[in-house]
Amino acid sequence: MKLRLLTAVFLLIAAAPFSRAGNEAVSPRLRGLSELEAPSFEIAAETSFLWGSLANPNSYEVGAQFITARLRWGTIDSDSWLRGYQQVYFLAMAQPFFRGPENYYFGISAGMRYNFVRHPGARLVPYISGGVGLGWIDSHADVFGAQGQDFTFNILSAVGVSYKVNDKLKVTVGGLYQHFSNAGQTSPNPSLNLFGPQVGVTYSF
């Protein structure tokens, strides 16, 4: 009886390392199947070509260059269409005016971006973003429909999709809406609404 008991204890002790090894080998793989890939920090360079519309009498054509830093700000790792991760971003912009009374705009903006990750390892990731900021434009208050003063607020919103080239690099294609206004600091306050395509590259850390 004692021999049988000792044999059983020996077998349990001998099998324990294999049990742990099996768990270690299987668990990471299983966890990887549901793991949400969300970079902690990104830097992006983006460019847009925008047209003015919505009641402004001037036919604006504007180029827009953005340098953006994005920081991960929470994830939703669930089996639903909301699966993805949120980012807070800060950007600097420089915009030459190809057509319109003004010649340039320089500004900054801060906002949020949400990335929809449908499944692990997805290369195509749709996104939406929006933010507010401020900047300076070479205003021409004497021209009808031009901006009333140099200091101007801005609103940015975008929708698009990013394509993951590799673990570090992504390219993005989307549409951008931009709004300029001085919040009623001049009268009249001719706001400016711009729409157009946007492309960019992103490097993840």
Describe the model.
There is one protein chain. This protein is of the alpha+beta class and 205 residues long. It folds into two domains: 1-34; 37-204, Porin (Beta Barrel). It contains one helix and eight strands. It has one helix at residues 2-34; strands at 41-53, 61-76, 84-99, 104-116, 124-137, 151-164, 169-181, 192-204. An eight-stranded antiparallel beta barrel has the order 1-2-3-4-5-6-7-8. A hairpin with a 4-residue loop joins strand 6 and strand 7 (169-181).
Could you give a short description of this structure?
With 205 residues, the chain is an alpha+beta fold. Helix content is 16%, strand content 55%. Residues 9-33 have low confidence and may be disordered.
